[in-house]
Amino acid sequence: MSFKSMVFKKLFQKPWTEIYPKIKRPAPEGFRGKIVVDDNICRACGTCVRVCPSNAIELYPEENVFILKIYHEKCIRCGECISKCPFSAMKFVEEYEFISTHQSSLMSMAKIPALKCVACGKLFVSKVEVSDILGKLGKDYEYLSLMCEDCRRQMVAQKIAFKK
């Protein structure tokens, strides 16, 4: 077969490789892609922030919510945050494209509704956590679940001091 005939034949054949942007292949089983947080399950406990070896996760209060940010360009996909989350609120998704011109698209963000302390106004616990606490303790302790740890400590100390 001559070179010309081989070139002519190959010119009209389909490509051997898949055309990537048009045809996306599924990620293999067990692939560690982007990490997402379910803000309906997350309690903003901060465990993920403490166990992340690459400091890719931030948690901070803002207005009436806790903001949880995961910076995917810093993340090393070790899965520590997912395995240590006590509420299973985090998971890997099969998204493997991290190409962007905007840094905001390289970040996942969850807004967890929170409560402010009735005594001092400090944002201290997620609303889901309060409903869990009230379910375990009962309505008798509802006033304690609406106060931050510092104000609760002061209130209990005052009650003990005035009982004597």
TrEMBL record:
MF annotations from Gene Ontology: 4 iron, 4 sulfur cluster binding; metal ion binding; oxidoreductase activity, acting on NAD(P)H
SUPFAM superfamilies, per database record: 4Fe-4S ferredoxins (SSF54862)
Record's keyword annotation contains Disulfide bond: no
Keyword rRNA processing annotated: no
GO cellular component terms given for this protein: membrane
Domain 4Fe-4S ferredoxin-type: 33-62, 66-95
Keywords: 4Fe-4S, Iron, Iron-sulfur, Metal-binding
Superkingdom of the organism of origin: Archaea
InterPro entries (UniProt xref): 4Fe4S_Fe-S-bd, 4Fe4S_Fe_S_CS, NADH_quinone_OxRdtase_chainI
Name under which the protein is recorded: Carbon monoxide-induced hydrogenase, CooX subunit
Source lineage: Archaea, Thermoproteota, Thermoprotei, Thermofilales, Thermofilaceae
